[in-house]
Amino acid sequence: IFSSKEEGEGQKSKGDQAKELLAKYGGAYLATSITLSLISFALCYVLINAGVDVQTLLQKVGITTDATGEKVGTFALAYAAHKAASPIRFPPTVALTPIVAGWIGKKADKEDK
């Protein structure tokens, strides 16, 4: 239903970057990624359910759509839009993971005392 623009050559793939974040930050990366994914899916669902043309919004940021999206239900369309928006979600995940790791680390330090 949706597809994003290709990544530039010579850059690490998003999958490789995600593996590095997981290796470095572990649970903090997973918590950040899952939280942002849940927010993204919920937002897509609410927007589609409210009648917002999410396909047009995604096209404005370079994510193409096809006519198949008009034939599926709200949940499926929201999921497809959520997955297509992954390139938009990944940079905040990268930026927020060290912050979340710091919070988790600080909480662990306080519990040890």
From TrEMBL:
The chain crosses the membrane at residues 28-48. The keyword Membrane applies. GO terms for cellular component: chloroplast. Residues 17-99 form the DUF1279 domain. Keywords: Membrane, Transmembrane, Transmembrane helix. It holds the Pfam family FAM210A-B_dom. Coiled coil: none annotated. This is Protein FAM210B-like protein. It comes from Trifolium pratense (Red clover).
